Amino acid sequence: MDIFPKCPQCEEGRLLPFSRGEDIFELWKCSHCSYTVYKK
Asked: pLDDT tens string for the chain (40 positions)?
């Protein structure tokens, strides 16, 4: 069972959380294609 969501762009990688400040889940990057999601 994978705890991280699948990448919506490449469908191969997983979105992994990266922190740029206090919010741990502010930035998500794909482990395969470098697709990035920013939380608003």
From this structure: 579 999 999 999 999 988 766 666 789 999 999 899 987 6
Return d(Cα 35, Cα 31) in angstroms, integer.
8
pTM: 0.72
Instruction: Look up residue 24 and give its two tokens.
Output: 């741990």
Ramachandran assignment for 12, one of left (phi > 0), alpha (psi -120 to 50 degrees), beta (any other): alpha
Residue 6, SS3 per DSSP: strand
Q: Are 26 and 19 in contact (CB under 8 A)?
A: yes
